[in-house]
Amino acid sequence: MATSDNDPMKPVATPTPRRKPKQEITRIGGRELKPSTLMMGHGYDPALSEGSLKAPIFLTSTFAFENAAAGKRHFEGITGKRPGGAEGLVYSRFNGPNQEILEDRLAIWDGAEDALCFSSGMTAIAILILAACKAGDVIVHSGPLYAASEGFVAKVMARYGVRYVDFPAGADRDQLDEVMARAKAMAEESGGEVPLIYLESPGNPTNALVDVEAVKAARDAHFDPDRCPIAIDNTFLGPLWQRPLEQGADLVVYSLTKYVGGHSDLVAGSVSGAKRWIDAVRALRNTMGGIADPNTAWMLLRSLETVELRMQRAGENAEKVCAFLSQHPKVEKLGYLGMIKDARQQDIYDRHCLGAGSTFSMFIKGGEAECFAFLDALKVAKLAVSLGGTETLASHPASMTHLSVPEGRRTELGIADNLVRVSIGIEDPEDLIADFAQALEAV
Ligand SMILES: *Cc1c(COP(=O)(O)O)cnc(C)c1O
Question: Domain with 365 in it: what CATH number?
Fold first, then answer.
């Protein structure tokens, strides 16, 4: 059979693929590139994927080894027989290309050494807590927490012999010292340690801020900082408006479902921080699973390209809407970080926050009936729980997200019957004000 050089059936010699991605450019001259610039390419080399400008979605459950010795080296890394972890990709429960790029880019936003992505915010939180604790230990946490986080600590961890002590979000150094001393005594009595201080700031739905600097000072005074990391759920203000690693937190936790995902079309979570803390969490994720899937990771790469733009616009919109609401005769008060009334809270805000966010509480004069009339009259804003999406959402915590909280605790947390929770999106601000104005007329 005759063959010629232009025979379409003749196999084309493929160039040997480069195994290592090209050198990353993170500086130009003396200038360190900003996260918003790095989001377009960091951690991805088109030459490794047929020149595809954007990362393809890698749908595979397993990865081919170059040779048997390479396979052995990977497993030595995964099992901890050799330090440094796996050198390449092995199996999709451990990691994949889309998730690795996502993790590299997530770490950039918080100025963290390393990051891990998860299938939900709660998976991230649950695996972080499980990785830190053993029977007899006592967790110290701020309150209130996201209801599922609070339940995981109080109900699930209790079944494994882990107790907790909590303190109110705004606690000062004296209160923190008292709480840490009490936790230490409890842990000693049950033969354990305090292996984790877990914070959420601002708290939901009151927007009360935690003084991370004071928590770090108290932690350093009572515990060995190498055995007791401070983790903080930064879902409400991160990554743009609060950078807790700079105030002394060791780990930052996200529900990426909210501002980072930002389009109300996915569920995911993450943990970022120093490698020595992240490695223990990664080991448990390798065992349990719970990593984000490749498609979700790919969607999050797209989200990260616009996260700064979206959050800036949402923040500006919220400022305008709150300026309108604060003057409205049917609005009793606002729980908005741009209009703090308390000197201690304002001091924490000034030290910790770069912006007021776009999620706030609005107290309508009246009670549940007035709130329901308002919610039912909204035309642009949607009636749904969650936050941080491109669209404006409103809900009624007392009868929805916090219905299961006992009435006494609800009052303590400031979750009144006349509270409407609002997350402002990126619509036209004047359209939003028109919508809120006409809905308040229906009250
Ligand atoms: C939504 C949320 C979570 C849980 O995240 P999921 O992605 O829904 O699992 C945790 N913390 C805060 C503050 C949240 O708003």
Answer: 3.90.1150.10
Residues 238 and 331 grouped into a single domain: no
Shared domain check, 340 and 291: no
How many angstroms separate the alpha carbon of residue 336 from the centre of ligand 1? Answer: 20
What's the rounded Cα separation, in Å, for the pair 300 and 36? 14
3-state class of 112 per DSSP? Answer: coil
Contacts of 38 (CB under 8 A, 6+ apart): 26, 105, 108
Of ligand 1's atoms, which has the minimum distance to the CA of residue 388?
15
In this model, does residue 412 exceed pLDDT 90? no
- pLDDT tens, residue by residue, 292-309: 999 999 999 999 999 999
CA-based nearest residue to 199, from 158, 269, 247: 247
The total domain count for the chain is 2
Residue 1 is predicted with a pLDDT of 42
* Region of residue 273 (phi > 0: left; psi between -120 and 50: alpha; otherwise: beta): left
Pair 190, 116 in one domain: yes
Separation of CA 368 and ligand 1 centre (Å): 25
d(C-alpha 86, C-alpha 71), whole Å = 10
Helix-strand-coil percent breakdown of the chain, rounded to 5?
40, 15, 45
Question: Which residue has the CA at smallest separation from atom 15 of ligand 1?
Answer: 235
Q: How far apart are the first and last CA of the chain?
A: 86
* Cα 60 to ligand 1 centroid, rounded to whole Å: 28
Q: In which domain, by residue range, is 220 found?
A: 94-303
